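User: Quick one: structure for sequence A, then sequence B.

Assistant: Sequence A:
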Amino acid sequence: MLIELSGPERKEQADRLANKMAELFADRPEIRIARPQKMGEIRASGAGPFATPEDIARAVAEHGGCSLTDIKVGDIRTMGRGKRSAWVRCSLEAATKVAKIGRLRDRWFHFNVELLDARPLQCFKCLEKGHVQAKCPSGNTDRSKCCYRCGTEGHEARTCTAPAHCTLCHAAGRPASHRMGGLACKAPKNGGKRTKGGNAQAPPP
């Protein structure tokens, strides 16, 4: 059941309603209360060497006016020239607000905030864009366990050291010596047509 509220105070009202319903059904584990909202993604960069994902989340919550429980921060990675950067997902309202501020401060460090473009629809089964898993037209093709960097199974892209190989471009007969979804990726969108190729293929030796 979906309950939709309207009006200028709908966010606060929805929060109160969700909290109250969670209390009423606390002894009913089969009932799940969720507070859906539009989400946005930002990039936090330039944080000091001792900053943690928890520090970034706290600053976003404070300046964005949202709850810490609504924020997800990825691993902080060191990019070119030693610059540290992290991906952050929070409510679209909070993401837009902190992006307008541009530079946030949390105790002893500052970091810059950039609003990222909304991601296109992507199927988590075949990994192609243009549709979702519930409407996947790819048949037996299942790339859900594939590494986004090399295309093989058994590990994640963040720990991968293998040469880049895009399984989507490989299946489409295009140059594939790049990371899936990267700037060089030219994989076609699949809005309902089946692409050639079966399950994920490993990069050539």
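Sequence B:
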Amino acid sequence: MLTINELRDRYREAWLVARRVPSGINLGHASYWPEFNPNRWEVYHSEDARIKSAPPSADAVDRMVECMRWLRWLSEEERELVWLRAGGLSWRDIAKKSGLSRMTASRYWRKAMMHVILRQNQ
């Protein structure tokens, strides 16, 4: 049986995995530019560039899909609250986006978490 904190952590992990999963969208465009092989100076100057993170593991994707399935038990407003909170937004930012007060948003989020926990235990 999951607790609210464990469920919160699962949704946070699902949010992070969802950002790393490749979209798989192929627009059908081709590049006619020649292949670029940088010289050592260009490589040296690009060392500060951000490195793309590796794709998530299959287990992480499976856990993300499981969390997504749990969202279907919630209303659209509850889903949005759960996903915004999983994204790491503060209650103040969530309140601005949802049009609720901070305490009300927190209360609705907790209610949504409890709803998921209760449905899992059925």
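Residues 1-20+54-122 form one domain. The chain has a mean pLDDT of 87.

User: Thanks, that's what I needed.
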